[in-house]
Design goal:
Layout: H1 7-30, E1 42-48, E2 70-75, E3 81-87, E4 90-95, E5 102-107, E6 111-117, E7 121-127, E8 140-145
Antiparallel strand pairs: 1-2, 1-8, 3-4, 4-7, 5-8, 6-7
Length: 150
């Protein structure tokens, strides 16, 4: 006995072939990575922890890129990520060569605010409910990006 597909089976097989081929093509376009420093991409990350055992209370008042001050850094421009203390609870993080226009900040158990400054610098303010005695062990992270144009 010889198998002869019906016209309906042939059309269904062709439809299945094109459906799977189209999905594979769409998937290959969807998982393509964004170009480095593209609009809408994360352009920089700074997770500031301060030196081990000292915390963020001892961050220097001059910009420093010392790795012991961060648990994680990334700057899509390839420049250094640096931090400095301005005053008690006020810090600045700089992503050298990075033209990011917006950022977010998250403080570990602290209320936080962030202000963009010129030159790839973001000013971060932290307030720890409960006062200064808890301040020493805090950390914070900042992510910067350039908004995507629609």
């Amino acid at each position: 006995m010889r198998f002869r597909p019906s016209p309906a089976t042939a059309i269904a097989a062709a439809a299945l072939f094109f459906a799977l081929g189209g999905s594979a093509l769409a998937l290959s376009d969807a998982v393509r990575p964004q170009p480095r420093c593209a609009n809408g991409a994360v352009r920089g990350i700074a997770a500031v922890t301060g030196e081990a055992g000292k915390g963020i209370a001892n961050i220097p008042d001059q910009f420093s890129g010392n790795r012991s001050l961060f648990s994680r850094t990334f700057n899509c421009a390839g420049g250094p990520t640096e931090v400095r203390r301005i005053a008690f609870g006020i810090y600045e993080v700089r992503f050298a060569g990075n033209a990011a226009a917006s950022a977010t900040v998250s403080g570990s158990g602290a209320e936080s605010w962030l202000t963009p400054m010129p030159g790839g610098v973001f000013r971060v303010g932290l307030h720890v409910p409960g006062g200064r005695t808890q301040w020493r062990r805090r950390s914070w992270s900042s992510r910067c990006s350039r908004p995507r144009a629609y």
